[in-house]
Structure formats: C-alpha cells, structure tokens
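Late entry, written up from scratch paper. The run itself happened at the end of the previous shift, but nothing got recorded in the book at the time, so transcribing now.
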Amino acid sequence: MTSVRVYLRMRPFNKRETAMGDLRYPIKLQGQDVIFEDRNKIFSFDHCFGVKDQQEQVFDVVGKKVVDDFMRGFNATQFVYGQTGSGKTWTMMGIPEQRGLIPRSAQMIFDLIARKPEGWSCEIDASYLEIYMEKVNDLLNADKVNLNIKEDKNFSPISPFIPTYFGLVQVGVFIWIVIQDI
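Output as recorded:
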C-alpha cells in the first residue's frame, strides 16, 4: 500500500481567461505524465485528470480508494493543494448537481456504515480547515484563524482525533447530506 498518491486535475479556462483569448495550455497531459513542451520537462503522477473529466470520475479514481482505506481502519486524508483560483474548492465540494470529493466520500461512508452488522456503532465528527499563507484557519468558526500548530510527540493512530489537538471545531455528522451544508 502506497502512503501518498498524487493526482493532477487540470481545470478549464474561466470566463476572464476566455475573454482574454490566446487559449493555450502550457502543459499537455499524456497518460500519467504532464509534459511541459517548451521546457522539455515531464512530471509523472498517479493519475491526471483533463479539463473534461467530471467530478464522478475524480471520485471513482481518488475518493473511493481513500474511503475504502478509511473504512478498513487506516488513516486517510484527502488533501488538495494549488494556487488561488486553481479549482480546489470545486474539486472538494462542487455543487449539488456535481458533488465533489467531500460530499461523495461522506455519502459512501454512511452507505457503508448502513451495511454494517447489527450492534456495530460509530461516531463521526467533521472538521474543515484551510492552510493559507502558512496559517491554519478553521472554516467552521471564523474566529479561529492562525491556529497554532505544534508537534504532538505522543500522537499515534490510536490517539485522540488530531483536529481536537489543533482546537478545531468538530461537528457531529449523522447523515451525509449535512456535509454539503458545512
């Protein structure tokens, strides 16, 4: 099992870029490779998504594996990185008609929980944070900005849930659709 998988998603041009004209991407996607032809550089990823790939395709490749690992007891994280305007929020949240990774993952988790044998129980809490300009902000509480990050020398997979350590707000979640409204 690989610890970290890295994916690339290329977004379509936005309205401002389209209005400016000269619609050429500086990269070319070829399988798992990103090619910078003018720089003669190639970078490889676990998977590359083009501008026409839909939210469902991204979830099928990325989200399902993360949820499967999580439900088997492994630590699992979906982490999106990119500059402002690169499509991070779209990929993670989407819109109700084209849900992103977070609501699709939440729905899958609750669907899998519903199939567990009688007597099985769990508790699910959700936190939502951003790291912007090297500051950690709690997206569920606007007053919690620039949170202090410290190394927890005692942290282990069986330690208390890490967002509690950061002081993030945790919201109890009982049905997956609540995630869309967070």
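The radius of gyration is 19 Å.
(Scratch paper discarded after transcription.)
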